[in-house]
Design brief:
heterodimer, A: 326 residues, D-amino Acid Aminotransferase, Chain A, domain 1, Dna Ligase, domain 1, 2 domains, seven-stranded antiparallel beta sheet, 12 helices, globular, B: 503 residues, 3 domains, four-stranded antiparallel beta sheet
Chain lengths: 326, 503
């Protein structure tokens, strides 16, 4: 049931207190938080830095505007509505397509225009924002995610979280939504976390509910064969978010679009610690190594450095080999 | 970035806090534990009146050393007034006078009273019953009938008094008694009847001592004599005997407060109980006179404010519990300091009543809030609706429990209603988004934190320490600063990250 602090330290695991004081408190300037806490600001900033993000259909900032969203949505079959200041994936409504007057969620549930309007109205009144402050609703184009991931995901879009420390991508994981997580990509709700090797973009290890897994619980597909296309580009995109925000300890959430390749979905100034579970390894040694590196290195060089030093062999393949031998 | 200033501040806070506490312990002989000492009541009487704009004279009865209590020191605060203490046959009074006063006036009298079981009152001679008590008909026959009835059922003055007062209690008993009560107030009526019957008795006023009470008034009692013996009767129940926590304020049958040259006069009392060695209490009073500016402590405030501070000074203890549980254990709560406020309410309601009441209100609130979410309201309006719902639930439970004879149910009103409403709102959203399991985790965490905070804040020793040693606040501050610097694992993380260490 319990382990000892000594064992965790030996694994290099970072705890919540240490993350808050040692990394977030030290490397993330409070003044810069609005850049990442407000998804609209992040999006506009990303455009300046030529970082691809999902296309913006429009924004709604007044309750009056809520009555006009059907005009905004008229030309779009699928779309995503999210609060600009939401956290932890709260308040994100994904509409896959339309059937007549109804909007269809990935789960197959039908919503009326009224339901959608109520959702937008809730967003505006601050239901999902940090501290309940009034918010703006963003309407984005639906991500047309890469076919190769279809077997790894249940309803939701699989996204890739890369921790970027002082511009270096230090650890990555892919979050696969499951039936248990209700199509959401939150690990504590039952999504599968897959540790991704920084060097190759292949799966290292999978966990669900903190326990090791080697296949997707719903599709039954082996995680060992998971390979992310355009991995180097994705890492460089993530790494350049450091120049964009100047935040030293950053969680970048990326998706792979079929047409546009890797895209930045959102940034997080307080990334969670579950990534350590998915990788079966603590962040501490990697962060220590990065802290010893000089500043002023280009994103490409930083990615090359990380790919050289943080290469790991997949545990999943090892399991596969062992079963084959037996 | 150097951490030196941080450690310097922590060290400074610790040293100052400990030094202040030790100084108070040695210099004022305040003990470290609440036991092994005498109880002292600090009582403050506040006289308010509206002066007519001319000379004004205020005459206030004062308590004297009596059975069970000894008056240690007394003070008055009355800028611009001349003060005179009068003593007349065992009755003490304070007389304030001013030549020219206008508008709202406020005079203070405060006394330190030691609980002393061996103290005795100076004897006061029994009063002479008034000779000619005049009654209008038909009250004369009614009065005589009541007296005769009680007289026949009694043997001496005390049993007579008991019977007489009982007659006015039991409405089914006396038609005469009921008739008399239509014309007279209960206590003056009883006094007239005692006079008529020739039983020496006087009306006295006493203060029920209860720690931390503010804006209290005196209660009336009837003292009946049989020869040189006397006994105290409660004029509403007829019960004989003096409660242990009753301090006689006026014991000569005079009015408590007389004001000339003013209107709307009234006197109210605040009190607070403190534990101190008796000798130290006297010494601290002496010290107070010598250095008024240097004696910077809560204990130099008026009593009314001191009673308030007794609670305020406990809040850091509750907050410390929250910090400990969140930083060292990793418990999730709904709303960071909500548990502290709930714990404060528990202090008023007692733990079991508080817990049951809280769970009832939140559970019913969640059901109603669930319906509100169908109405598609704006956030602020919805939370306001929840607030009104919470008030309605609380009123309903109060009335219900009162009708069922559960007085504990009335204490539900001590809950902070706005906080409750936000708790319900947050829990409801949590339920919709994360499911009932997370509600249980956060709700349970909040309850656990509230109970632990309550246990800490209600501990007699902690109450004693926080109120008597202000230096402890600095030590708490230092502790919390140090906790804010803790980078180690949380207890629950040892479980969370266990799978990683397994292979």
């Amino acid at each position: 049931m319990w382990t000892s602090p000594g064992k965790l330290r030996a694994k290099g695991i970072i705890g919540m207190n240490q993350r808050n004081i040692r990394y977030i408190g030290r490397y993330n300037d409070r003044r810069l938080y609005p850049l990442v806490d407000d998804k609209l600001k992040t999006k506009l900033l990303a455009q300046q830095y030529a970082i691809t993000t999902p296309a913006l259909i429009g924004t709604v900032s007044t309750q009056f505007g809520v009555k006009h969203i059907h005009e905004m949505l008229a030309a779009h079959g699928g779309f995503v509505i999210k609060p600009a200041k939401g956290s932890g994936g709260k308040g994100i409504l994904v509409i896959e397509k339309r059937e007549g007057a109804h909007f269809v969620k990935p789960s197959g549930a039908h919503l009326t225009l009224e339901d959608v309007e109520r959702h937008v109205s809730n967003i505006l009144s601050g239901l999902y924002s940090l501290g309940g402050s009034p918010d703006v609703a963003l309407i984005e184009a639906l991500i047309d995610f890469d076919e190769s991931f279809a077997e790894y995901s249940y309803e939701g879009v699989p996204d890739i979280r890369v921790i970027v420390f002082q511009g270096y991508p230090v650890m990555a994981m892919m979050r696969l939504s499951t039936a248990a997580s209700d199509g959401k990509a939150n690990l504590h709700q039952g999504a599968v976390g897959v540790g991704i090797d920084i060097a190759s973009g292949t799966a290292i290890r999978g966990v669900q509910f903190d326990r090791a897994r080697h296949d997707h619980p719903d599709t039954g597909h082996e995680l060992a064969s998971l390979h992310i296309p355009g991995w180097k580009t994705l890492l460089e995109l993530a790494a350049s978010c450091y120049e964009m925000t100047a935040l030293g300890y950053l969680g970048t959430d990326m998706v792979i679009d079929r047409q546009h390749g890797p895209m930045l979905l959102e940034l997080n100034a307080r990334p969670g610690l579950a990534i350590q579970m998915a990788n079966g390894e603590g962040l501490q040694p990697r962060l220590d190594l990065i802290e010893r590196q000089p500043a002023g290195v280009s994103p490409e060089e930083r990615v090359a450095f990380a790919q050289h030093h943080f290469a790991r062999r997949s545990e999943l393949e090892r399991v596969a080999e062992e079963t084959a031998e037996a | 970035m150097s951490r030196l200033p941080f450690y310097l501040i922590v060290a400074l806070l610790l040293v100052t806090g400990i030094a202040m506490s030790v100084h108070r312990h040695i210099e004022f002989e305040v003990p470290w534990t609440p036991g092994e000492q005498r109880q002292i009541w600090e009582i403050e009487a506040q006289v308010n009146f509206r002066a007519d704009g001319g000379p004004a004279k205020v005459d206030l009865a004062l308590p004297s050393t009596q059975q069970g209590f000894r008056v240690l020191t007394e003070h008055t605060a009355s800028p611009g007034y001349g003060l005179n203490y009068l003593e007349d046959g065992g009755a003490r009074r304070a007389e304030w006078a001013v030549r020219d006063a206008e508008g709202s006036q406020r005079l203070y009298y405060s006394a330190q009273i030691l609980v002393a079981p061996d103290a005795k009152a100076a004897p006061i001679p029994p009063p002479q019953p008034a000779q000619n008590v005049v009654w209008e008909p038909p009250y004369d026959t009614a009065a005589q009938a009541v007296i005769d009835d009680a007289w026949s059922r009694s043997a001496d003055a005390f049993t007579f008094a008991h019977q007489l007062i009982q007659d006015f209690n039991d409405t089914s008993r006396g038609e005469n008694a009921r008739l008399l009560l239509t014309q007279f107030d209960r206590v003056p009526l009883l006094m007239r009847l005692f006079d008529q019957a020739g039983v020496p008795a006087r009306q006295v006023s006493g203060l029920m001592l209860e720690n931390g009470r503010r804006r209290q008034t005196l209660t009336s009692w009837i003292q009946v004599y049989d020869g040189n013996d006397s006994a105290l009767f409660d004029p509403t129940t007829g019960e004989r005997g003096r409660p242990d926590n009753l301090l006689m304020w006026e014991n000569a049958g005079h009015p408590v407060l007389e004001v000339q040259g003013g209107t709307n006069s009234g006197v109210s009392f605040s009190m607070i109980s403190r534990s101190q060695p008796a000798a130290a209490a006297v010494r601290s009073q002496l010290a107070k006179d010598s250095d008024t500016l240097l004696n910077f402590s809560i204990h130099s405030l008026p009593l009314e404010e001191q009673a308030l501070f007794q609670t305020i000074l406990l809040i850091p203890i509750g907050a410390l519990v929250v910090v400990l549980l969140r930083v060292l254990i990793g418990i999730k709560t709904s709303g960071t300091f909500m548990p502290v406020l709930v714990a404060l309410a528990f202090i008023q309601t007692t733990l079991v009543t508080g817990l049951v009441g809280f769970l009832l209100v939140v559970a019913v609130g969640l059901v109603i809030r669930n319906y509100l979410s169908y109405l598609n309201l704006l956030l602020v309006a919805r939370v306001t609706a929840v607030i009104i719902t919470v008030i309605a639930i609380i009123s309903l439970f109060s009335v219900l429990s009162f009708k069922l004879g559960l007085n504990a149910g009335l204490q539900i009103t001590f809950f902070p209603m706005i906080i409750l409403s936000w708790t319900i709102e947050r829990m409801s959203i949590l339920w919709e988004e994360e499911g009932p399991k997370e509600v249980l985790i956060q709700g349970g965490g909040s309850m656990l934190t509230a109970v632990l905070a309550y246990l800490a804040m209600n501990n007699p020793w902690i109450r004693h320490i926080t109120f008597n040693f202000l230096g402890v606040q600095l030590i708490l501050m230092a502790l919390i600063l140090m906790l804010g610097n803790y980078t180690g694992y949380r207890l629950l993380e040892l479980r969370r990250f266990k799978p990683v260490t397994e292979d």
